[in-house]
Amino acid sequence: MRSMRSLFGCLSTSYVLALVIPSMVWAADQPLKSAKPNVVLILADDMGWGDVGWHDSEIKTPHLDKLAASGTRLEQFYVQPVCSPTRAALMTGRYPMRHGLQVGVVRPWAQYGLPLNERTLPQALKEVGYETAICGKWHLGHFQPEYLPTHRGFDHQYGHYNGALDYFTHIRDGGFDWHRDDRVNRDEGYSTHLIGREATRIIGHHDTSKPLFLYVPFNAVHAPHQVPEKYKEPYSKLKEPRRTYAGMLAAMDEAVGQIASAIDGKGMRSNTIFLFSSDNGGPAPGQVTSNGPLRGQKGTLYEGGVRVPAFISWEGHLRPGTVVNAPLHIVDLFPTLLTLAGAPLEQSLPTDGRDAWTAIAHHGPSPHDAILLNTTPDSGAIRVGDWKLILNASRIDPEGETKVAKKARAPRDSVELFHISQDPFEKKNLATAHPEKVKELKARYEKFAAEAVAPKVAPMAKGFHAPKIWGESD
Question: Which of 38, 94, 139, 141 fits a 20 to 30 Å CA distance from 83?
Answer without folding.
Answer: 38
